Amino acid sequence: MAITEALCDEMRQLAALYPQSRSALLPMLHLVQSAEGEVSIDGINACAEVLGITSAEVTAVSTFYTMYKRKQVGKHHIGVCINTLCGLLGGDAVYAALSERLGVGHDQPSADGEFWLERIECQAACTHAPVMTVDWEFMDDVTPATAVDIVDRLARGEVVESTRGPIIRDFAATAHTLAFPNDGLADQGSSVDDKMLAGLMIAKERGMSAPSAPAPAAPTSQTEG
Ligand code: FES
């Protein structure tokens, strides 16, 4: 897919948001993924041109962060957290079931181009471990069976809702929201629930509080010798 002038306009809008235009590179790479389905060579060159930096610099950034893909992701990105808590509570089994269902391993697209499977790191959602993401929306407390069912429903084109509320769109749509988080969609759904607040509630009931932070150390004078 060619990089259109409309996409370059959106890139320039992002670049104009920052005192240093190159600070816009991360959202610009999400924008490229939303249009191209991957961080394509054309997208890299367009970012470099808009920001006045080299394609090598753009490539260096895009290959450092795992959210940027250099192959077609397909319609839906499926992430399975395999960090400590999720792994211990069943994340490894969830990943194995999805790997079998989709016929792919880590960081690979399915043969039909509909799904991309990835083992992901902690999503700061450990309260609801094991956690799976679909196009970066949370699916909390999944099991191997419910995870495969989510993929089956997406494959049938059914409407699927994140356990936190938002309707699953697709990878490209999420990538556009990541580029422009003020689109009114970024904070849909609930980000906190009773389970997440349980520790805080118990601490309040028991009158517990965190120890105050130590006072900063006084500056030491240095003698020259
Ligand atoms: S370990 Fe999976 S969300 Fe934290």
Q: Helix segment count?
A: 8
> How is the CATH topology of the domain at 76-170 named?
Glutaredoxin
The SSE order reads HHHHEHEEEEHHH
Bound molecules: FE2/S2 (inorganic) cluster
* CATH architectural designation of the domain at 76-170: 3-Layer(aba) Sandwich
CATH class of the domain at 76-170: Alpha Beta
Q: How many β-strands, per DSSP?
A: 5
Low-confidence stretches: none
Question: Given the helix and strand composition, which structural class is it?
Answer: alpha+beta
The percent range for helix content is 40-55%
- The order of strands across the largest sheet is 2-3-1-4-5
| Distance, first to last CA | 66 Å
Averaging pLDDT over every residue, what do you get?
A: 92
Task: Calculate Rg over CA atoms.
Answer: 21 Å
Shape: globular
Percent strand: 5-15%
Short description:
The protein is an alpha+beta fold and 225 residues long. The chain is 43% helix and 9% strand.
